[in-house]
Amino acid sequence: xxxxxxxxxxxxxxxxxxxxxxxxxxxxxxxxxxxxxxxxxxxxxxxxxxxxxxxxxxxxxxxxxxxxxxxxxxxxxxxxxxxxxxxxxxxxxxxxxxxxxxxxxxxxxxxxxxxxxxxxxxxxxxxxxxxxxxxxxxxxxxxxxxxxxxxxxxxxxxxxxx
Length: 162
Hints:
Strand order of the largest sheet: 1-2
Order of helices and strands: HHHHHHHEEHHHH
Helix content: 55-70%
C-alpha cells in the first residue's frame, strides 16, 4: 500500500492541497497528535531521505544563534565569518542559507555538518510534532517537496477522523 501511495506523490500532493488544508483546519487535534508518532515511523520505514534531499536542495532552515555558535565552533570558524560566508537575513529577520542547495549538502545527499546541524534540520519534517497542526501553511508547503509530509497527511486522511 505504501509503495502505491508514494507513486507519483508530487502530483498527488499538488492535487490534494485544498483537501489537506481543510483537513488541518477541522482535524481532531488530539487524535492527530496521538497518531503522529506511529505515522512518522511508518513514513521513515518507507522513505530514505538520502535518496531525496529536496529539503536541502531547495529550501533553507532558520539558523538560530545557538545553531550558529555550535556550527562555527565545529567548523573552527568565527561566528561572524560563518554568517558572512554562508548566511543572509531573510524577510522575517531570520538567518538562512545564502544559496540553494545548502552549501553543506554533498553530492551524495549527506550533510557535512549533520552532527551539529541547525535545530530546524533536526526537527524537519515536523511529522511527529504539533507543528504539523499549528503551522498549516508550512505543512502544506512541506508536503509539496517532502514525501514524508505527503505520506503522513495521506495516512491521516485515511485513518484519523475529523
